[in-house]
Design brief:
With 169 residues, the chain is mainly α. Helix content is 71%, strand content 0%.
């Protein structure tokens, strides 16, 4: 059974792939997805990805991917403005890093499900979203998220310690 995509589906898929590459570029370039600097392209591409994904309904009703898009769209403003939200205080940088990384993890869920249930076209690797290969790959992304987030937060903490030590001297 061929997996046909609409024109909007093709555009959405292309933008979503670019968003993931933009996130990886930001992570490798600056060690985090900073929405004001290296992660700005990821931010905008992710917003467009979420918005273009909302009208796509191959089953005629919203899917878990639609709900993830809404969640991502709710998290992104908090991440972008975390440093200016007084309530967050000293945790703002940590919240920003965690939120931006979390949006990438959430983005990987529909990316994984759609990829593995559609490719290869002649015999997709997964029959549905509950296939064991999907669970395994999502577990891998979650593990990578935890390790990557821990690394980013430790790096931020060390940077803050160094800044504080430098301010004292």
């Amino acid at each position: 059974m061929p997996n046909h995509l609409s024109i909007l589906g093709i555009i959405h898929t292309a933008i979503s792939i670019l968003a993931i590459f933009a996130a990886l570029y930001a992570l490798f370039r600056s060690g985090k997805i900073d929405p004001a600097k290296s992660g700005k392209l990821y931010l905008w591409l992710t917003i467009v990805t979420c918005l273009t994904g909302l009208p796509i309904m191959k089953t005629g009703q919203p899917t878990p991917g639609h709900f993830l898009a809404v969640i991502i769209l709710l998290i992104l403003p908090m991440a972008v403005f975390a440093k200016s939200i007084k309530f967050f205080g000293k945790a703002a940088d940590y919240i920003q890093i965690g939120s931006m990384s979390f949006t990438l993890l959430l983005s990987m869920i529909p990316a994984t499900v759609e990829t593995l249930t559609r490719l290869p076209i002649s015999a997709p690797l997964a029959a549905d979203a509950n296939a064991s290969i999907i669970t395994t790959v999502l577990g891998f992304w979650t593990g990578l998220f935890v390790i990557g987030l821990a690394q980013q937060l430790f790096k931020l903490k060390a940077s803050k310690k160094a800044e504080a030590a430098q301010a004292i001297t």
